[in-house]
Design a protein that fits this description.
By secondary structure, the protein is an alpha/beta fold. Helix content is 41%, strand content 19%. Strands 12-11-10-9-8-13 form a six-stranded mixed β-sheet, with helices on both faces. A five-stranded parallel β-sheet has the order 3-2-4-5-6, sandwiched between helices. Strands 15-14-16-17-18 form a five-stranded parallel β-sheet, sandwiched between helices.
Length: 445
């Protein structure tokens, strides 16, 4: 029944999309993609092929030069991982060839000086994107070169993925974005491969989403992309959702048979945890959701748009970020200094406090967009500060950054209003990424 209803609504479906229509449209353009990571490579390939663009993939600059001179593409999309210096030899050989010299290049890489960007122009680089890439601006640039029309869904969406043991947790909030859903398919396969998961289990958490029938197409795309990898069996795919649309969709499609939709975590965890346990459900949640495995193949789906931030380039992005005020409370001076440098490198303003008393004295005088808080400190503990903020009805979002791995501490912090709990030690970039997610979510709410 639901499948028929979904089809009836298809003609009314309107995607929150930006379209780029250049002046002239020509058929069968060719693009050479060089050294893009798997997720980005597959996403680009999928979008380009959908617009009848021929795609060639190259790995390594020797392979790239051979294919470049062989096919003479209309555009090169070049990914740089660490330093622009590593691709200068390739660029010089391209420049010296009379046929390839004028082929335009769109490049993605780390933050570099503007002088370095200017130096790349001589090699045909027309656009340099600092990672993570804003995909709507990327495809606008590609469209201008190829005279092709690309559609990009700009629906606000937070999509986070993390792994604990063999359970992959996917959390989606705010909305369903087709581009992020498409990237999710490749991200899941990447996690499964990197961690050699034989029978991965997936929990999709959508408790913050309220859907309507017009979301049917995106919901179907989401379910199809999660189950696209044959290693994810439907019996090992669980959905946490309070929305009846989700259960109707799953029940109405025979291809989703075996997928479980539940309204509480206890229903899901009882069926997905490997061994029986008498532990309280809060302890199980702490082990399986809050504490992710230590892997570099996890984290948020890096799909960003100009419309997410309103900033067109790195300079304006840093300028806007500097308006964000982050308070850091930690009695360890080394931790404070590391976090201050990391946040400053991303353009965020930080104020450091060695104790909770110092922070509370300033909190009434200065506005903060985020608080990063240690638990065990001399004097006031992190728990004390959370209680006081709650009593004063302060709405500042809090991320706990602590060495305490005790389940009771994690559950207590979250029950007192902390948005997230991150265990020390952690790469500072991970904390910055989570901080930006919390700040953005708080701004939009």
């Amino acid at each position: 029944m639901f499948k028929l209803i979904t089809k009836n609504y298809c003609f009314r479906y309107k995607l929150n999309t930006n379209y780029f229509f250049p002046d002239n449209i020509k058929a069968m353009k060719q693009v050479l993609i060089i050294d893009a990571p798997p997720m980005l490579k597959e996403f680009l390939k999928e979008k380009l092929i959908a617009e009848k663009v021929s795609v060639e993939i190259a790995t390594g600059y020797r392979d790239a030069l051979t294919k470049l001179l062989s096919i003479i593409p209309d555009l090169i999309i070049l990914n740089v991982e660490e330093s622009v210096d590593e691709i200068i030899e390739f660029l010089q050989k391209k420049k010296s060839d009379p046929n390839a010299g004028k082929i335009p290049i769109i490049m993605a890489g780390p933050v570099i000086e503007r002088a370095e960007v200017s130096n790349l122009v001589q090699f045909g680089v027309i656009k340099y994107f600092t990672k993570p890439i804003k995909f709507d601006i990327l495809f606008e640039s590609i469209g201008k070169v190829l005279h092709a029309a690309f559609s990009i869904d700009t629906t606000p969406c937070v999509l986070d993925v993390h792994l604990n043991n063999n359970i992959i947790f996917i959390e989606i909030a705010m909305g369903l974005n087709r581009e992020k859903i498409s990237l999710l398919r490749y991200k899941l396969s990447e996690i499964i491969d990197a961690n050699n998961l034989k029978l991965p289990k997936v929990i999709l958490m959508m408790t913050d989403l309220s859907l309507s029938f017009v979301d049917g197409m995106n919901l179907e795309l989401l379910l199809n992309n999660v189950t696209a990898d044959p290693r994810i069996l439907r019996k090992n795919f669980k959905i946490l959702s309070l929305d009846s649309i989700v259960s109707e969709m799953v029940d109405g499609h025979t291809e989703y048979k075996g997928i479980t939709v539940a309204k509480t975590l206890s229903e899901i965890l009882n069926s997905i945890i490997d061994k029986p346990t008498d532990e309280p459900i809060t302890d199980i949640i702490s082990d399986n959701i809050i504490t992710a495995s230590d892997s570099e193949n996890l984290g948020s789906i890096e799909t960003r748009f100009y419309s997410d931030t309103g900033n067109a380039d790195l300079a304006t992005e840093v300028e806007a970020a500097s308006l964000v005020q982050v308070a850091i409370i930690d009695d360890d001076i080394i931790v404070r200094d590391i976090l201050q440098k990391t946040f400053s490198d991303r353009g965020l303003e930080t104020t450091l406090f060695s104790s909770g008393a110092e922070f509370l004295a300033q909190s009434a005088k200065k506005h903060f967009d985020l608080l990063i808080l240690d638990i065990f400190m001399p004097g006031l503990s992190g728990f004390d500060i959370l209680r006081m903020l709650k009593e004063r009805t302060f709405s500042i979002p809090v991320i706990i950054y602590s060495q305490d791995m005790q389940k009771d501490a994690i559950v207590q912090a979250l029950s007192l209003g902390a948005r997230s709990y991150i265990l020390k030690p952690q790469k500072p970039e991970v904390l910055v990424q989570k901080a930006l997610e919390v700040i953005n979510a708080n701004t939009r709410s």
